[in-house]
Structure formats: structure tokens, C-alpha cells
Amino acid sequence: MLRRCLEYHHKPQSTSGFPTLGLMMHMAAYSTTAQYGCIVDILEVQMMYDGRAILQVRGTTPFRVLEDTGNRDGYSVARVELLHDIPPPSRTSPTPRTNPRLFEPAERAHVRDLVQICVAFLSSLRRHGAPGQDVLDRIMRVYGAPPVNDPGLLGFWFARFLPVGDAEKARMLAIRSQRDRLERVIHWISRVAGPEPE
């Protein structure tokens, strides 16, 4: 399967020029595969002596499984629908607030307010590390800088490191609204951070 993907990298969804592959989580508890997954660019392949491969990939586009079309080379194959964000309605978008708080009702929050709450949480991580052991610096070394200027990606960036179950993180692939994804992240942050100080 990997060889096929590496040889056939001029698929329509490959806008970056890299070979692509669709990844889905296997739900072991249900002996099934999730109905949502992600197209990934294959950035690097390291072949092992026993035939296995270590891949470095970058997620690009979520998808929904429309039809399971069987197996090929021992891997599931499916017909999928690529999921792109639905643009927010511009007329009803609320005005950003000066100082949004973590536990204000998120349904009234502007996307910029939600981004600001997420950034404030990141700033708080700087205060939790021992000298020379900055938590945020460690996160950024592993996952890169937070894409604060791209609210569509910011929710996925947080999902990579917040201590939340993989099945719960995978459900974010079905969310097509930047605001809804950020609200989900803020819910996770509130569980991690605990009660907000008065």
C-alpha cells in the first residue's frame, strides 16, 4: 500500500506535491474503523530492515467515509468525502471582547476571543515549568509554533498535545466550524486547567 501511495502522488487532493495517504483510527473496542479520518502528506519514509517503515506525515484534510470498498494489501480502502470548513456567517458574527474569560458562554464568543483564550492558556504554561524546563518551549519543540493566525488549524494543533483520549480527539475531524473546534479545545483546556481563579 505504501509503495502504491509513493508511486501515485498526483492525486487531486495532493496540493503540496507530496505523496498522500488516508489515515483512520481503528476502534479496537468495537472491532471497527472510525468513520472519519485525515489525508496526510508523506514527508519522509525510513524503511526498516524487516520491511516495516517509519513515516513522517503531516495532516492536511479531514474526510468522511462514504463507502467501505474492501481491502487492498491488507489495508482498508474506502470512497471518501473531503471535509472543508464551512465559512462562518459574516452578518451574525459577534463583536470581539476586550478580555474574554475562560468560562464565559462560548456560544456568544467571537472566534478571535476563543483564539485569545487559547493563547492565554499557552502563556500560563510558561509559569508551570521549572527554571530551564519551560513546558510551552517543550511543546513547541515537538509540535511547532501554535498557528494563532489560522483559527482553522489552531484547534487541531491543540488536539495534538492536550491529555485527551484519542477517540475524543478523532471526533474533531468531523467538526467543520473553526468556532466549534475552538470551543471543544477550550472545554478540554478547562478540564486540564481546573477552576479559573477569581
Terminal CA distance reads 55 Å
Q: How would you describe the shape?
A: globular
Care to count the β-strands?
Answer: 4
In what range is the share of β-strand residues? 25-35%
Q: Which structural category do the helix and sheet elements fall into?
A: alpha+beta
The count of helical stretches stands at 6
Radius of gyration equals 19 Å
pLDDT averaged residue by residue = 80
CATH class of the largest domain: Mainly Alpha
- Provide the CATH topology of the largest domain: Methane Monooxygenase Hydroxylase, Chain G, domain 1
Whole-number count of domains: 2
Largest sheet: 4 strands, antiparallel
Order of SSEs, N→C? Answer: HEEEEHHHHH
Q: Ranges with pLDDT <50 over ≥5 residues?
A: none
Strand order of the largest sheet: 1-2-3-4
CATH architecture of the largest domain: Up-down Bundle
Helix content, binned percent: 25-40%
Describe this structure in words.
It comes from Mycena chlorophos. One of its GO terms (molecular function) is ubiquitin protein ligase activity. It contains six helices and four strands; from the N terminus they run αββββααααα. The longest helix has 16 residues, at 111-126. It folds into two domains: 2-82, LON domain-like (Archaeosine Trna-guanine Transglycosylase, Chain: A, domain 4); 106-193, Up-down Bundle (Methane Monooxygenase Hydroxylase, Chain G, domain 1), CATH 1.20.58. It has helices spanning 2-7, 111-126, 135-143, 151-159, 166-170, 178-193; strands at residues 20-27, 32-47, 53-72, 75-82. The protein is 31% helix and 26% strand.
